[in-house]
Design brief:
The protein has 174 residues and is α+β, with helices and mostly antiparallel strands. It is 39% helix and 21% strand. The protein folds into two domains: 43 residues, no CATH class; 119 residues, Alpha-Beta Plaits, CATH 3.30.70.1150. The protein binds nickel (II) ion.
Length: 174
């Protein structure tokens, strides 16, 4: 049954300080209640190290864990793992002969792993396409590599994410 587990983590002071600095600058602000209780605790324990700059460590650590789990899910080989989601953005040369057809052919052949795609005419000579994948990681990488390798594709990047189904939706208290 899903629930919340609290656990303690021992960490080098310098490492934790650097982590706090980073998460605060990235918007993991501590809730007002948490900040107030930390200030109260700090003033109650004279000389105790101030913890006011800690930010929302729990949320930051949960995000790191989820990010690592998604990264590991994408490392599964052919025929392994669960479905993942990815988006490939490519910028390509509109004037390269047959390129649009070739890119569309690749996508049609692997339509089972592609949810949707969208196309923007950036300039008279360049196109941008975003292709949304859902399927096994190895299959998605193979299709993405084929699209990126097509002659006339100038730049592209695969963003790897998740269907989200493995993450329990729970309202965490800060
Ligand atoms: Ni176009």
């Amino acid at each position: 049954m899903p629930g919340i587990v609290r656990f303690g983590v021992s960490m080098d002071t310098k490492l934790l300080k650097e982590f706090d600095r980073k998460i605060c600058s990235r918007g993991y602000a501590a809730s007002r209640e948490a900040a107030a209780s930390r200030e109260a605790a700090a003033s109650a324990e004279a000389g105790a190290p101030a913890r006011h700059a800690a930010g929302n460590r729990s949320e930051a650590i949960r995000d790191l864990v989820r990010d690592k789990l998604v990264e590991l899910a994408w490392q599964d080989g052919p025929g392994q793992g669960r479905d993942v989601v990815g988006t490939l953005t490519i910028v390509y040369d509109h004037d390269v002969r047959d390129l649009t057809d070739r890119l569309t052919d690749i996508q049609h052949r692997r339509h089972d792993s592609i949810i949707a795609s969208t196309h923007a005419h950036l300039t008279p000579h360049t196109c941008l396409e975003v292709i949304i994948f859902r399927g096994r990681p190895a299959a998605i990488r193979t299709i993405a590599d084929a699209l990126l390798a097509a002659k006339g594709v100038r730049h592209g990047k695969l963003v790897t994410t998740t269907t989200g189904s493995e993450f329990h939706e729970h309202r965490y208290r800060r």
